[in-house]
């Protein structure tokens, strides 16, 4: 597909999401982008940023004409006026409605993929809505089994566990969970990234990958048997490997993806190499979803200092995944 139609949700209205949506219109990106947001919010943010903006109301039947300073907007109204840097829990339902509309459009074929600007989990929870994150919410909407993967700096890093306290990680590393996630990773690398035989390097949970059981038995009791089972089924898996040497540049070229056991085992290295240009890709959903690698940056909202690099990369990644999908 040469020019897919991409839904872009503007995220937390008091954060930098609306800024980024306005900023990317100045770049003349050659994509069919439909921003799902409050049109007045975007216009007000453009005024603050002193950037030209022409808003065209989105229609699924109208021809989409990309252009510099032109934004196609699927309007969803705010509950309350948004002030940059000052989130209001009253707008939590608005944020979720934008996600729901994007998902519905992807599921019914109206959109080919969705790209998300950052949301503020705390504000949504302050509204009395149980919300653990974008990824988990999209999984609920689509009945998916999500795996979080970030791409950047020449790496792809997928996670066995995501937003868990460190004390809960070991108990979450089970054979069923590892096998399910690794199958999803391989499937999506083949069907969406166009990699015919993915090589996946698996990190150990413990220092030195457990050092033969002297530093923990999770590798011996859980990780190695799971990897052996999947290898017997034809998967190309390397490990478990000590995480402290896994990211050696000379070794990275041999891997298509690294499977880290927990959030802060894999992501600090990737973000060090690519912060501001990395992309969050959600595997295991029946739709394509990419996102930025950063948060709402409330202190930058409305200042013009937000960097749109990660959002541009997320848009480009979404288009690439659509093109490779089979």
UniProtKB/TrEMBL annotation:
Pfam families: PdxA
Protein name as catalogued: 4-hydroxythreonine-4-phosphate dehydrogenase
Cofactor requirements of the protein: Zn(2+); Mg(2+); Co(2+)
GO CC annotation terms, alphabetical: cytoplasm
Miscellaneous comment: The active site is located at the dimer interface.
Subunit note: Homodimer.
Residue positions binding substrate: 134-135, 271, 280, 289
Catalytic activity: 4-(phosphooxy)-L-threonine + NAD(+) = 3-amino-2-oxopropyl phosphate + CO2 + NADH
Membership in a protein family: Belongs to the PdxA family.
Alphabetical list of PANTHER family matching this protein: 4-HYDROXYTHREONINE-4-PHOSPHATE DEHYDROGENASE
Gene Ontology molecular function: any one: NAD binding
Function per UniProt: Catalyzes the NAD(P)-dependent oxidation of 4-(phosphooxy)-L-threonine (HTP) into 2-amino-3-oxo-4-(phosphooxy)butyric acid which spontaneously decarboxylates to form 3-amino-2-oxopropyl phosphate (AHAP).
Binding site for a divalent metal cation: 163, 208, 263
GO biological process, one term: pyridoxine biosynthetic process
Subcellular location: Cytoplasm
Organism, as annotated: Nitrosospira multiformis (strain ATCC 25196 / NCIMB 11849 / C 71)
Cofactor binding remark: Binds 1 divalent metal cation per subunit. Can use ions such as Zn(2+), Mg(2+) or Co(2+).
InterPro entries (alphabetical): PdxA (IPR037510), PdxA_fam (IPR005255)
Highest taxon above the source species: Bacteria
Keywords on record: Cobalt, Cytoplasm, Magnesium, Metal-binding, NAD, NADP, Oxidoreductase, Pyridoxine biosynthesis, Zinc
Pathway involvement of the protein, from the record: Cofactor biosynthesis; pyridoxine 5'-phosphate biosynthesis; pyridoxine 5'-phosphate from D-erythrose 4-phosphate: step 4/5
Top-level EC class as recorded in UniProt: oxidoreductase
NCBIfam families given in the database record: pdxA (TIGR00557)
E.C. numbers: 1.1.1.262
Primary location class: cytoplasm
């Amino acid at each position: 597909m040469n020019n897919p139609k991409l839904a872009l949700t503007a995220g937390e209205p008091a954060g930098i999401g609306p800024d980024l949506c306005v900023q990317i219109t100045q770049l003349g990106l050659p994509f069919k982008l439909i921003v799902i947001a409050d049109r007045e919010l975007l216009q007000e943010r453009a005024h603050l940023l002193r950037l030209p903006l022409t808003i065209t109301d989105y229609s699924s039947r109208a021809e989409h004409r990309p252009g510099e300073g032109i934004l196609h907007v699927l309007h969803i109204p705010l509950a309350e006026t948004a002030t940059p840097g000052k989130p209001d829990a009253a707008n939590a339902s608005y944020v979720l409605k934008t996600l729901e509309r994007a998902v519905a459009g992807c599921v019914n074929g109206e959109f080919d993929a969705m790209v998300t600007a950052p949301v503020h989990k705390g504000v949504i929870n302050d509204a009395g809505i149980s919300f653990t994150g974008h990824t988990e919410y999209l999984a609920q909407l689509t009945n998916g089994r999500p795996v979080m993967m970030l791409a950047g700096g020449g790496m792809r890093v997928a996670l066995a566990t995501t937003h868990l306290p460190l004390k809960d990680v070991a108990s979450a590393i089970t054979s069923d969970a590892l096998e399910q996630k690794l199958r999803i990773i391989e499937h999506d690398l083949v069907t969406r990234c166009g990699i015919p035989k993915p090589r996946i390097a698996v990190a150990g949970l413990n220092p030195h990958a457990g050092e033969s059981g002297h530093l923990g038995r999770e590798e011996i009791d859980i990780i190695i048997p799971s990897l052996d089972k999947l290898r017997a089924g034809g998967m190309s898996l390397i490990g478990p490997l000590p995480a402290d040497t896994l990211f050696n540049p000379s070794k990275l070229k041999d891997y298509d993806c690294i499977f880290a056991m927990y959030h802060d085992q894999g992501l600090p290295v990737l973000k060090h190499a690519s912060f501001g240009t990395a992309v969050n890709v959600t595997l295991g959903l029946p739709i394509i979803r990419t996102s930025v690698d950063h948060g709402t940056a409330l202190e930058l909202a409305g200042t013009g200092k937000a960097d749109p690099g990660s959002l541009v990369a997320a848009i480009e990644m979404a288009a690439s995944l659509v093109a490779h999908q089979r």
